[in-house]
Amino acid sequence: MTASITRKTFCGALAGSTVALLFQGCGGGGSEAPAPAPAPGAAGCSDTIAANHGHTLVIATADLDSATDKVYDIQGAAVHNHTVTLTVAQLRALKAGTTVNVTSSTTAAHEHAVTILCA
To answer: What's the pTM value of the predicted model, to 2 decimals?
Structure first.
C-alpha cells in the first residue's frame, strides 16, 4: 500500500514544525517590488516601479538641491537597464514632500511608470 500526501497535508505538517521555508514566486514580471532600503547618502525616498522585475532607484540626498536635471540608472537586479530623469522642478517637489510620477526610458520593448516620495 502506497501512502500519498496532499499539498495541503504537506504544508500543514511544515507549519507545525520548526523548519522555516521561504517561498518566492517567479515569472510574469507583473508585480511591483517594494523599494529597497535607502543606500548610505540616500535621500530617504521610497519608490514604486510598476511591473517591476528587479529595478531599483536610489536618489542621493544632495540631488534634491541640484540645479540641473538628474538621470538615474535603475537596472538593479534586472538583466537590462532603464533610466529615469528627474527635472530640477521634480527634485524640488520631492524635497517638499510631494509625490512625483515619471516614466522610465524604453528598453527591451517596455518602460516603467515610477512613483517617488521623499520623507
So the answer is: 0.67
